[in-house]
Amino acid sequence: MVSELTNMLSYFLFSGLLVSIITGSCLQYIKRLFKGRSDDYSRKVYPLVIALSTCCIMSIVISTLGIVQSPNTFYAEFSVIPFFRSLLYSTNMNYIVTMFHRKWTSTIFSITFALAGASTIAQYFIFRWVVEYNAFQEMNYMMLGTSFISFALPCMLLLKRKTNASKFVSQNWS
To answer: Is 86 a member of any domain?
Structure first.
């Protein structure tokens, strides 16, 4: 059964190129929706808020489906994972380019890649802990909790708008 599931995940992940094109097209469409806005903040940050919120929702869907363990939910997870992956990476890059000054982007990209590498290495040790203590459900609940916590960034960006962030935006993007 495990071999069949890993094969199915591989088949879904092979669709990554097509999924990336779809994701990129959707993100460009969202940007075009806000292109005519008069203030910089809504024109540049609102598309990010939509993309980040969508990414958070996909993370919650994957985490929730992980709690209910059956072959059908695994297939549903496998269908969401390529979209989540593509949106996660593109939203990360888009956020950095939009929110930080051009002179800092290479440094911030380096820090981001270093943190991604460290989290990838940490996955091995987390997996060992889960297998050793048979804590699969506990890990699924922790992942669901971190998925809900990830909504903090889009909420902060929306609340920042309420506190006269146009000065911040004009200083950052000028």
So the answer is: yes
Contacts (Cβ under 8 Å, ≥6 apart) of 32 = none
Flag whether 96 is in a domain: yes
Q: What is the pTM of this model?
A: 0.84
In a domain, 89, yes or no: yes
Asked, for residue 25, whether it belongs to a domain, the answer is yes
Structural domain total, the chain: 1
144-152 long-range CB contacts below 8 Å, 24 or more apart? 144/60, 144/63, 144/64, 144/66, 144/67, 147/56, 147/59, 147/60, 147/62, 147/63, 148/60, 150/55, 150/56, 150/59, 151/53, 151/56
pLDDT tens digits along 149-169: 999 999 999 888 766 555 555
